[in-house]
Amino acid sequence: MLIVFIGPPGAGKGTQCRRLVELFDIPHLSTGEMLRAVMEQDTALSRYVASYINAGKLAPDHLVMRIVSQKIKSPDCAKGALFDGFPRTMVQAQMLDDLLTELKRPLDVVLELRVPDEVLITRLLKRAKIDGRADDNDSTIRERLRVFHEQTKPLVQYYGAQGKLRSVDGTESELDVLATLCPL
Ligand code: AMP
């Protein structure tokens, strides 16, 4: 089971992903978490990654692909995986297609959570107070939303054309969203 989860920052992807991985018993591959783990070290690479993330920019495609392709080939992912926050650009989506073709493991479904920008901004500012994430401040939040619309939103059409997309209203309650994502 290979699932891609697309949604703007603050759409509630993390929460839904935690429930979905339990349901399907597959690993949760969050590229945001993987990149934050890289940033915790004190190396040239961690400073390079931080320069993108802390400015609300996307990390370079080749770097993200290297991390993802190592993970997906690991034994943990033999049964599948849930990609959270990846792919985020058309280049990443095409590179993922190539990788999965090479591995003979097609993507099963692409889930999209839709939430209006005003709701996202309110949620992210609230999260900033609770988690203290360096990339959750007013200007980076706006930049991340701009980047989402410009670079990630086109994936909705890309996967729609492949017949793999399921879009869900992310303003509903957590359980309603889950029920729509995974109808019984
Ligand atoms: P997230 O935790 O998914 O909101 O990601 C936090 C930040 O990590 C993003 O704003 C990007 O700077 C970076 N990031 C996460 N996933 C990707 C990706 N697939 N491609 C490029 N940058 C990413």
What does this structure look like?
- The two termini are 17 Å apart.
- It is built from 9 helices and 5 strands.
- The protein is globular, with a radius of gyration of 16 Å.
- The protein has a single domain, classed as 3-Layer(aba) Sandwich (Rossmann fold), CATH 3.40.50.
- The longest helix has 15 residues, at 117-131.
- It is of the alpha/beta class.
- 56% of the residues lie in helices and 12% in strands.
- It binds adenosine monophosphate.
Count of alpha/pi helices: 9
Roughly what percent helix? 55-70%
CA distance, first residue to last residue: 17 Å
Number of domains: 1
Topology summary:
Elements: E1 2-6, H1 13-24, E2 28-30, H2 31-40, H3 44-53, H4 61-72, E3 81-84, H5 90-102, E4 109-114, H6 117-131, H7 138-152, H8 154-161, E5 165-169, H9 174-181
Parallel strand pairs: 1-3, 1-4, 2-3, 4-5
Helix pairs in contact: 2-3, 4-5, 6-7
The structure holds adenosine monophosphate.
